[in-house]
Amino acid sequence: MIKEGFDIAQAHLRHNCGSTRTATTITITKRPNNSSMRKYYQAALIITALVSVVSLLFYRHEYNKLRYVLEVISFFGKPGVKEPDVNRLGEIDISDDLHLHFDVPLPSWQRINNDLFVYAAYHANINEVRGIAFGKTYIIPDINCHVFIQGKEQHVLGIFKHSRISNLLKSQSRKNLEYAAYQFVCEYSQPAIPEGVSFFNKRDVSESEYPILSVQNLPHNLITNDIAICIAPPLNRSISRTDMMNFLSFHQMIGVDHFIVYDYGIPSIFTDTMKQIMNSQGLNVTFTVVPWNFPYTRISPGISGEIAERDCLYRTYNKVKYSITLYWEEYIVLKYHHTLAELLIDFEKGLLASDHYRLNSSLFCTQQEDYHPTGNTTLMIFKKTRKISEGSMKNRHVSISKPHKSWITDSIDIDSYISPGADLINVNRYQYCSNSENEMSYTHDRSISKFAENIINAPIFKQYMTRQSSISK
Fold this sequence. Notes:
Blueprint: H1 2-17, H2 34-76, E1 110-113, E2 116-123, E3 128-136, E4 143-149, E5 155-165, E6 179-187, E7 194-201, E8 213-217, E9 227-232, H3 241-253, E10 258-263, H4 268-278, E11 286-291, H5 301-315, E12 322-327, E13 330-334, H6 340-349, E14 356-365, H7 380-383, E15 386-388, E16 397-401, E17 425-431, H8 435-438, E18 442-444, H9 452-456, H10 459-472
């Protein structure tokens, strides 16, 4: 019994524990292929590199924009608002110690004989005085010149030379014109500073009667990097004060620093008001009026414009970097830039770098019907958008020149100037057209309208309108 019970217990134990051991299951994880891993790493590196390059390009673009703005400010000063008493070339105080003196001494047409007059005289080269003259186109008579030296009572006999002033295209004939502009030169031997000069016909005038012109001694080095506009007598004598104000406000808004006006009879109340406005609010914009007592009537406006342009180059010599001569009816229109400084800096950096630029002009007839969708402004220049394809402006060119590069040039050859193209800058002239011009084909040009909103907030415009409103009350 005992043995039998032992056998039963042993059999039960074998049943529970099993006679064989269960095998342990081992899971083996397969490692990825090495070539697949390398592809993942390469993709990650390429993505990282692309992100880095894009970020670099973005920051470089922003850096160049900031650098460009800083160059504009340091080269021409901040447009519209300038720090008082700081010259753009450094720390020269031009407002107190170094006045530009565009009108000192005052010019005036002086009679040499019944058919020849001289306007102003300038000294820049050693032993040479230049004068601006006008008269009939016959051969200049036997003229002598005297130079009055600073600190000496006796005058010095000079050597007289002259040349024609012509700013027109070579293709235009000047043979049939009765009058012409001249450049007079008086050379003298003594190395001294001249105070006055006389040009005279010794056969007609005794030495005690000939007029003496004060000589403007010009700077030897460039004082500023500013831009000046000289305004020739208008094509239409009945130009309104509002139109003159609009001209000044518009061009100050695009970065012009100095205005030199040849006075054909502008009311003094207007010129005084403009001087007060431009000297206020820290604009540091100068407004200079010089006499224009022109001795002839019924002379082509083109000739008076030539005289004004040559006189402007001398009057601004080494005082500004660029000068432009316009009529009151003309507006410089920038297509992409907001200031002339930005445009000229771009020119100087690229292939268009030059001492002289020629701008094309377009004619807009003021009797044409208005184009109304130009914002909330009522100014004429924004409402007259019909550009005439031909007409009197076909051969009219406006030049932007460096005066300090123009002194050695006897005749301005506009054909040799660089033309930046009307897609960058153009000159719009607004005038009453002839019947034939008014009937010519036209296209709408609204490029000037981008300034419509800005001019309303321009300081000159706001100040002038405020003063006019107070006067009318």
